[in-house]
Design goal:
Blueprint (H helix, E strand, L loop, with lengths): L2 E7 L5 H12 L3 E7 L13 E4 L5 H6 L8 E4 L2 E4 H4 L9 E6 L3 H14 L4 E6 L11 E4 L12 E4 L4 E2 L1 H10 L9 H8 L1 E2 L5 H21 L3 E6 L4 E4 L1 H7 L3 H4 L4 H4 L4 H8 L3 E3 L7 E10 L2 E11 L29 H14 L5 E4 L6 H10 L8 E5 L5 H9 L17 H4 L4 E5 L6 H13 L1 E2 L8 E2 L3 E6 L3 H6 L5 H7 L2 E4 L10 H11 L5 E2 L1 H9 L5 H15 L3 E2 L6 H4 L8 H14 L4 H10 L6 H13 L3 E3 L6 E3 L1 H11 L1
Parallel strand pairs: 1-2, 1-3, 3-4, 6-7, 6-8, 8-9, 17-22, 17-23, 18-19, 19-22, 24-25
Antiparallel strand pairs: 5-10, 5-11, 12-13, 12-16, 14-15, 15-16, 20-21, 26-27
Helix pairs in contact: 12-13, 16-18, 19-21, 23-26
Length: 659
């Protein structure tokens, strides 16, 4: 759910710039409703609890403040200077006089003060603003995006660009929105690097804190015991997966919980009041030891670190009986999901497990067909018997036959002395799993058909019939009926194997399970990174052509990056080049229109601006997106160097999305 922000400005023209800057850091996490004094929208405010105010010192705002809902948080929009464009001021000699042009006297004077503090005191600035009366006439004017207010007689204008929201204000907003993790993303780093902060030394402190946070994250990940970080309000802000295991809950359930709900004792309150370390010994062999250490800054309690250590013997799980080293590894409890599709599929598979009929499992590659095969075996009457699996597409025809049916000594050149027992024999009294059954040749299919019908086999070059008692579970990621029509699969074999059909849904059919699966795979690797809201949305809507297997690969890839926060651009390249889901059309449309509302620019410059705002896109794809937007009337593209611009319809598109 998006977090709501009320944006209060004096002038309507400032709205688009503020929204663009906030979104460049927070992306789609926030829903911003603008209010201003020009069109009286300020008198029709909604139910927002957080207000970002650029007009905080305005006399008008002092009256409006009384109208804000109870408990509302007001965050002043402190502004800072854009870093890159300031370099152009170095070209002027010391003592040069110039106007500093802004839309009000107060803002002009504030900008001059910031320029002097930043080290540009070699120019003597005089404030200039609408309605200003001055006898001075200079041929140089410096402005912060307010060229229209520059006097006509000025010969040279240096526009250093509109001032940006200061880092300190963004940090305060992140804290109010309870999403401080945003401050660790590359988007925030890019935002901070493009300005001269009004808060001296803040960028250096941020860099040090980020380094320290990553160091602590690594320690939490490798520590054998459980670690929980709690803030001064008693809310859990971070923990490792070991802590979740100790407490018998999921890590996601711990985050943002009140510590009193998790550890039902007065330990935390004593730690906070006395500001001393609290230790609690294990009361019995099934308990754990707890150490709660206060975190003090400037004599003030700001939170605590809790460590949990094991004092109980390892629990030995009941494992299936191994027969010649052949056993099913998985059970239905290993199948993760809460979506109706997966729940109904598991329920059906459990019913099938209670019978002894053949099962044909179908579904896209990577959906977990083998997991279901193992689970069906482990919940059947054959659970104590062997489970033998083979991929029929992985072996050439002659080897597949010898593996399935076995052979006698001397059956072929290179045959093992004494012959070899086939997989059907090894699976006697248990289950054989034939994966990718469509990869079996027609001649082998004929021999398999006899095994299915007669429940007997004959080894290659053998002379005696061997009776077998085997349940067959087969699987395919192909359309077998289509292969039958093409003459590539035997129709009679299909109906023998397809006694109990079980279709496994793809990830695109069970999108509700994607967040849970992601956290599960993170947990198995003991990873503590978090996804940005944009990354979460992207992963939910991504097509996942490789299904579960692709998701596992994705998490393992992210583990190698050692990030504390994962954004869209950090995902594997193959996921970012997916033709349908690289970036949602409506999201990228909004970002393009916002940029073009700020400046007219060509495709290459637009691509650079999108990259700064966290959107990875190739020039080819941007071209096709812009062509579609132009057809829809959202943007207008000029010829040559004129660049593109947002249309009135495009601006309405943004407004409608924000409402």
């Amino acid at each position: 759910m998006k977090k709501k922000i009320g944006l209060i400005t004096e002038y309507k023209k400032a709205v688009a710039e503020y929204i663009a800057q906030i979104r460049s850091v927070f992306g789609e996490l926030v829903a911003i409703t603008p209010y201003n004094f020009e069109d009286d929208s300020i008198y029709n405010m909604g139910e927002e609890k957080i207000f970002f105010v650029s007009a905080v010192s305005s006399s008008k705002f002092r009256d409006i403040k009384k109208m804000l809902p109870g408990g509302a948080v007001v965050i002043p929009a402190v502004l800072s200077l854009p870093k890159k464009s300031l370099v152009s001021l170095n070209a002027y000699d010391k003592g040069r006089h110039a106007f500093l042009v802004n839309n009000t006297k107060k803002m002009a004077e504030e900008t001059i003060s910031q320029l002097y503090q930043t080290g540009y005191g070699h120019i003597v600035f005089t404030p200039y603003y609408p309605g200003c009366k001055t006898d001075e006439k200079y041929d140089l004017a410096v402005t912060v995006g307010e060229r229209e207010y520059v006097p006509d007689y000025v010969k040279e204008i240096v526009d250093i660009g509109a001032r940006k929201i200061d880092i300190a204000s963004i940090i305060e907003l992140a804290e109010a929105l309870d999403c401080e993790y945003i401050l660790e993303t590359d988007r925030f780093a890019v935002f901070a690097s493009n300005q001269v902060s009004a808060s001296s030394g803040l960028s250096i402190i941020l860099e040090k804190n980020l380094h320290q946070k990553r160091y602590i994250d690594t320690l939490m990940r490798v520590f054998d015991g459980g670690v929980i970080n709690v803030n001064k309000r008693g809310i859990i802000t971070d923990c490792n997966y070991s802590a979740a295991d100790f407490l018998g809950v999921g890590r996601a359930s711990l985050l943002n919980c009140d510590i009193h709900e998790i550890i039902k004792s007065p330990d935390y309150d004593r730690c906070k009041e006395r500001q001393v370390e609290i230790k609690r010994q294990a009361e019995d062999k099934n308990d754990f030891e707890l150490i709660m250490t206060p975190v003090i800054r400037g004599g003030e309690f700001i939170g605590a670190v809790i460590t949990l250590t094991n004092n109980k013997p390892e629990l030995i799980e009941n494992k299936p009986k191994y027969v010649n080293g052949l056993a099913a590894k998985y059970n239905f409890s290993d199948i993760v999901g809460v979506s109706p599709r997966i729940i109904s599929t598991v329920a059906l598979a459990k019913k099938m497990a209670r019978t002894d009929s053949n099962v044909l499992i179908t579904g896209e590659s990577g959906t977990g067909k083998e997991l279901f095969a193992h689970s069906v075996h482990n919940n059947s009457e054959r659970a104590e018997g062997p489970f033998v699996a083979i991929n029929c597409a992985a072996l050439p025809e002659n080897l597949l036959e010898s593996e399935l049916f076995g052979y006698e000594e001397g059956a072929f050149t290179g045959a093992r002395k004494g012959g070899k027992t086939g997989l059907f024999e090894l699976a006697d009294s248990g289950t054989i799993f034939l994966d990718e059954i469509e990869g079996m040749s027609l001649s082998t299919q004929v021999k398999l058909l006899r095994v299915v019908q007669e429940r007997e086999i004959m080894r290659l070059s053998g002379e005696k019939i061997i009776d077998i008692n085997v349940r067959i579970i087969s699987a395919s990621n192909q359309n077998l009926m289509q292969l039958i029509e093409q003459g590539k699969f035997r129709k009679d074999l299909f109906y023998r194997l397809n006694t109990l059909p079980l279709n496994i849904p793809s990830l695109s059919e069970r999108k509700e399970d994607i967040p849970l699966l992601l956290e599960t795979f993170k947990g198995r690797l003991n990873l503590t990174f978090v996804f940005t809201e944009e990354a979460k949305k992207y992963l939910r809507d991504y097509s996942w052509p490789g299904n579960i297997r692709e998701m596992q690969n994705c998490i393992e890839y992210l583990a190698c990056l050692d990030l504390s926060v994962v954004d869209i651009k950090d995902l594997p390249e193959i996921m970012l080049t997916d033709s349908v889901y690289r970036e949602h059309a409506e999201d990228i449309y909004s970002k393009i229109i916002m940029i073009l509302a700020e400046m007219h620019c060509g495709r290459r410059q637009l691509m650079e601006e999108l990259n700064k705002r966290g959107v990875r896109i190739t020039e080819g794809r941007l071209r096709s997106v812009m062509q579609k937007m132009q057809t829809d009337g959202l943007i207008k593209s000029g010829r040559g160097r004129q660049g593109s611009e947002a249309t009135k319809l495009g601006l309405e598109y943004i407004k409608n999305r924000q409402e």
